[in-house]
Design a protein that fits this description.
Topoisomerase I, Chain A, domain 4, RT_dom, globular, 1108 residues, telomerase RNA binding, Alpha-Beta Plaits, 13% strand
Length: 1108
């Protein structure tokens, strides 16, 4: 529990004490440090009654703020040295005191437990006893350097004295706030997640790169006071901590809403290792969301007090989900005649025993269906086992099972007749005939979507296969299971399906095969029956339905239908693939002769594979080059001699950071930047448009023109690209600095390793980089890992040359090399593309740099706006003629202007029916530059296709978080800044945001389990109300940097009106919400003429074209 008193002890000082004493309320820190306090609170208690003045009248504000906003946690039994407070012996300096601390920390370092302190990184035990300092220096430590140079730390040393200062640096975890504001009462100091640099520490586990925190002293944290977006968080889990996110795009908006507004920097200490090793922290059953801060202590104490010896097993059916991902993008099997293999996979246990001469085939089948009864690896006892490993084990356990030692429980021997029938019925089942009957080939149709079998046909095939193979005696509730299988097939990509959902309303007592003669049906017996039934249903889905689907169908998505799942027979998909490969190998890829394959594979990057994604309903496919998967080339680590497979993107990540560093340098001066009009985020678009709008205070007529480059990645000249990169890289050497980030994200505390590049001259200034991060991101902790690597410019160019000129892919059994363009899917492709077309702008379109116009380009989408009509005509004409030197040619059909212009006697498509110009998902007003969301993009598309409904764990909490995520994703200043948009436009943007949110709310609620009488409409109203409140928080949180002339009451009224308007179409389903919505709508705001104008449906007619 926290040691913070209700009324902190005031220090003995004649100066004015701080007006507000903040207890550390950050949930991340409180989760891991129960005794976290502000530095001022802690020292006030320790110095109580002593003649030490922590704060004096003449102290500067920086020192006071340092004490008031820093957080500290002491995790030692060592007593604070009160007797020597203020004493500095022999005129020892602050620097010599730090050296003494480092010496002590290095001496107690234990490599076996990997426990260390950020202060000791770069320092080791001395090689000889003659070393006067007591430690050796391997490399510079920017954390200790920062402390040595810090005036506030030196001042604190002078106040506390030598012993107290050593005690703090040696035993405490300290967090220092970044960008603190004057109103400290509004700041929520973050609780320390980890003070250790152990490999098991959350600071060294992988976490999102979009975090901010900086490391300073021994245990220091940096805090940036911005609003985040996640109100409910959960404990760190092993699964979450291992997730790696290489999304390093800058300017990405944080999607987490929280009560805490802080980003911190920390150093390290030992105690967190004990917490992280707790099994309870790596157990998914504990992923319970916290609702409010007041409830955290109880949950936190439960997590921390579990002993490491205790094992927590997850047996709840709602926590066990089937591995649906195993059925996607699976290549077909072939028979001995090179024909397609239909039915169950060749290595499925039912096919293995089909030709087996073993006398124990029934025992083998039994141990595959009921592995838990044999003590084998299973999903119930080992819920965190890798899903791919489990999937393979459940199909065939040859590596795990010794046939001669199988001991069958008597309960299962009784099932042998049923299992024998199962085997025999599988032998005679003609899966190919069933497939042709229920999912006939459609190779004569014109479109890929039509070529797929619809989900009802697929279900009919699976249903009949189950009827013919699985003995009916296994269940009396067959309709329930078949209904669950139908729902399973209809699910969208990424949606999960739990065992609990599959067995909902299924009654074990109706399964006669579970009964044992002479055994009373008491609780123990009932539990055993349910246990066996669970195993059978799990096997049915995981080892029969999923293998059946992936062996007979290529399961994929469609670019035009987002997450909707499409099922193509493998023999049909083969024709689609051949058509796509023919196009690729004709224009983009060249086949490599067999004699050159081995030589090319010996490169640094190896080769990757591609898959084809249906692009639309016109037969087009899109190649997806998967550069995130480990390449088929082993990398040997020199230190551990361990062989691992790395992905191409992992190998290129250092190059990405360096290019990103150069990009950041050039973004500051757009007029001279090689990036030209490149935009990397909505923030940059907003900033550019607002600056241009301010130049045009006296409104003049604006001329718009947009063009789209045809095949922008594939048309880039490789040699010219390398020349451009050579110019972009302005340094001969670059330094890469490592740091860790801890943050609340997606309902969990996650840690990710990250790094940033800089020139070797600026390398040591990590604090400056951390402060820069704190302006962009929210709510996190940054730990300086004091690790650096250096990369030579020549090495970067050499790696990029191999990446561009030797991009190898494998299709079938053949290798191909990309002959033109740059690889799509590469982590560096976006930056390379932006620099390439930026240089083209400089050389081919120099007039777009003038102040009378603005060029915006998002990858291949150009938009030029100017008050000079001739320049816009010149731009659109030049782009239509193309730039052969750069391989740049546009798609004429996608060009658009807002005035009459003719090229080669042909008019360019002109904007009709309004003044809102569409570009990259925005509608930009051609007179005012006001921006709205372009919802016309969603016309004739089903809203449900864009959703992923998660029902396995805490579906209610996931619903709430999803609605918050949806509504806040469009609460950007480009839509809500009333100094950029008119107030009417801002209100309309808010209203339409709620309209689309209401549509998604309906489909999400409808997709949740327990519908009908079990629905909790009271909770649904809580979710809707929370959605309104979250929108208010996020919109108004920007009021300190932008003008937001909108009241919370207006936002909530618009939200209620939007939900009532949309749900009226489904009123019978949402009857319980209308009382609450109507109550809000009937407030005096309904008489506002402006609000009534905003909600006029004529302004939102575009929503009529959305399929709802």
């Amino acid at each position: 529990m926290s040691n913070i008193p209700k009324n902190p002890v005031q220090p003995e000082t004649t100066s004015k004490s701080p007006t507000t004493f903040n207890s550390v309320r950050n949930i991340i820190l409180r989760t891991y440090y129960p005794n976290i306090q502000t530095l001022y609170e802690y020292l006030s208690i320790q110095c109580d009654g002593e003649k030490i003045k922590l704060i004096r009248n003449d102290d500067n504000s920086e020192y006071k703020t340092f004490l008031e906003t820093s957080a500290i946690s002491i995790t030692t039994d060592e007593i604070f040295p009160k007797n020597t407070l203020g004493v500095i012996r022999n005129n020892n300096t602050f620097e010599s005191m730090i050296d003494s601390v480092i010496k002590q920390l290095v001496a107690r370092f234990d490599s076996r437990t990997s426990i260390s302190n950020v202060l000791t990184l770069g320092f080791t035990k001395p090689r000889t006893n003659s070393n006067p300092k007591g430690f050796s220096i391997q490399y510079d430590n920017s954390v200790t350097d920062q402390i040595r140079r810090s005036p506030v730390w030196n001042e604190l040393f002078q106040r506390l004295g030598e012993d107290a200062m050593e005690y703090i640096l040696r035993n405490a975890s300290i967090f220092i706030a970044l960008n603190h504001k004057s109103e400290l009462s509004a700041a929520n100091l973050m609780n320390q997640v980890s003070s250790t640099t152990s490999a098991k520490s959350p600071f060294t586990l992988r976490m999102p790169s979009t975090l901010s925190a900086v490391a300073q002293p021994s245990n220091t944290l940096i805090h940036s006071e911005q609003n985040s977006k996640m109100e409910d968080i959960e404990l760190l889990t092993k699964e979450d901590s291992q997730l790696s996110q290489e999304d390093l795009s800058l300017g990405q908006q944080d999607k987490n809403l929280s009560q805490d507004n802080s980003t911190w920097f920390t150093s390290s200490q030992e105690t967190i290792c004990e917490i992280i090793e707790d099994p309870i922290l790596s157990n998914p059953i504990l992923k319970r969301p916290f609702g409010c801060l007041e409830s955290q202590d109880n949950l936190q104490n439960k997590a921390i007090k579990i002993k490491s010896s205790e094992k927590v097993k997850i047996s709840s059916r709602s926590n066990i989900s089937f591995g649906r991902h195993n059925m996607f993008f699976y290549n077909p099997g072939y028979d001995s005649n090179c024909g397609f293999w239909f039915g169950l996979p060749k290595d499925h246990i039912l096919n293995v025993v089909r030709s087996s001469k073993s006398p124990n085939i029934l025992e083998l089948v039994a141990c595959h269906i009921f592995p838990r009864q044999f003590g084998l690896c299973n999903v119930f006892d080992d819920p965190q086992t890798d899903s791919h490993k489990l999937f393979k084990l459940y199909m065939h356990r040859s590596s795990e099972v010794d046939e001669s030692k199988l001991q069958v429980p008597s309960r299962l021997k009784k099932l042998f007749p049923l299992l024998n029938r199962l085997i025999q019925q599988h032998k005679i089942c003609r899966y190919d005939v069933l497939l042709n009957k229920f999912c006939p080939k459609k190779c004569d149709l014109l479109t890929e979507t039509d070529l797929s079998s619809n989900s009802h046909q697929v279900f009919a095939f699976v249903k009949e296969a189950i009827r013919q193979v699985i003995p009916g005696e296994f269940w009396e509730n067959q309709k329930i299971i078949l209904k669950a299988i139908e729902k399973f097939i209809l699910l969208r990509q990424h949606e999960m399906f739990s065992l609990h959902e599959a067995m909902d309303k299924f009654q074990a007592k109706k399964c006669k095969w579970l009964e044992m003669e002479g055994v009373k049906n008491n609780k123990v017996e009932a539990d055993k029956r349910v246990e066996i039934l669970n195993e059978f249903i799990w096997w049915l889905f995981e080892s029969f339905v999923i293998p059946l689907l992936r062996t007979n169908f290529y399961v994929t998505t469609n670019a035009s239908y987002k997450y909707r799942v499409f099922y193509y027979r493998h023999d049909v998909w083969y024709h689609v693939v051949q058509k796509g490969i023919s196009s690729l190998t004709k224009n983009i890829f060249k086949e490599i002769p067999v004699e050159n394959e081995e030589e090319l594979q010996n490169g640094t990057l190896g080769y990757s594979t591609i898959r084809l994604l249906p692009k639309d309903n016109k037969g087009a496919v899109r190649p997806i080059n998967n550069l995130k998967r480990p390449i088929r080339k082993q990398v040997i680590h020199t230190k551990t001699n361990r062989r691992t497979n790395q992905s191409v993107n992992t190998i290129l990540k250092d190059t990405f950071h360096i290019l990103n560093f150069e990009k950041e340098r050039q973004v500051t001066d757009r007029k001279s930047s090689l990036l030209g009009g490149s935009m990397f985020s909505l923030n940059e678009i907003y900033k550019s448009l607002k600056e241009y709008q301010q130049i045009l205070r006296h409104h003049m007529k604006l001329y718009f023109a947009k063009v789209d480059v045809r095949c922008c990645f594939e048309s880039i000249d490789q040699n010219r690209m390398l020349d451009i990169v050579n110019d972009v890289l302005t340094e001969d050497d670059y330094a890469l600095h490592k740091y860790d980030v801890v943050k609340c994200e997606s309902n969990a505390i996650r840690t990710r390793h990250n790094r940033y590049a800089t020139s070797t001259d600026d390398f040591a200034n990590f604090m400056a980089y951390a402060k820069e991060l704190s302006r962009k991101f929210m709510n996190g902790i940054i730990v300086d890992r004091v690790k650096e690597t250096y990369i030579d410019k020549k090495d970067i160019l050499s790696l990029l040359e191999e990446h561009l000129k030797n991009n190898l892919i494998k299709i079938g059994n053949k290798f191909y090399k990309q002959a033109i363009g740059i690889p799509q899917g590469s982590v560096v492709s976006t930056l390379l593309c932006s620099f390439y077309y930026g240089v083209m702008e400089w050389n081919e379109l120099p007039w777009v740099k003038n102040d009378d116009g603005i060029m915006l380009r998002f990858l291949d989408d150009f938009l030029y706006i100017s008050t000079n009509k001739e320049k816009v005509v010149k731009f659109i004409t030049a782009m239509h003629k193309g730039h052969p030197k750069y391989g740049c040619f546009i798609n004429d059909k996608k060009s658009l202007v807002n005035f009459d212009v003719k090229i080669d006697d042909t008019f360019v498509t002109k904007l009709e029916g309004g003044l809102e110009f569409p570009w990259c998902g925005l509608l930009i007003h051609t007179k005012t530059l006001n921006c709205k969301v372009d919802y016309k993009r969603y016309s004739n598309s089903l809203i449900a296709d864009a959703l992923t409904i998660k029902t396995a764990k805490n579906p209610g909490e996931l619903l709430k978080n999803k609605m918050i995520e949806i509504v806040t994703s469009k609460c950007h200043p480009i839509y809500n800044d009333t100094s950029f948009n008119s107030r009417t436009t801002v209100l309309l943007n808010i209203y339409q945001n709620f309209l689309i949110t209401a549509m998604k709310f309906h489909y999400y609620v409808k997709g949740l389990p327990h519908q009908g009488r079990q629905r909790n409409e009271t909770f649904e109203w809580v979710v809707v109300k929370k959605t309104f409140e979250s929108a208010c928080k996020v919109i108004q949180s920007k009021s300190q940097t932008q003008k937001i002339d909108v009241q919370s009451s207006e936002i909530k009224w618009l939200g209620a009106h939007a939900f009532r308007c949309i749900l009226t179409k489904k009123r019978s389903y949402h009857q319980g919400l209308f009382v609450h919505l109507t109550k809000i709508c009937n407030t005096p705001l309904q008489k506002s003429m402006m609000l009534q104008s905003v909600v006029d449906w004529n302004r939102s007619k575009v929503f009529d074209d959305l399929l709802f």
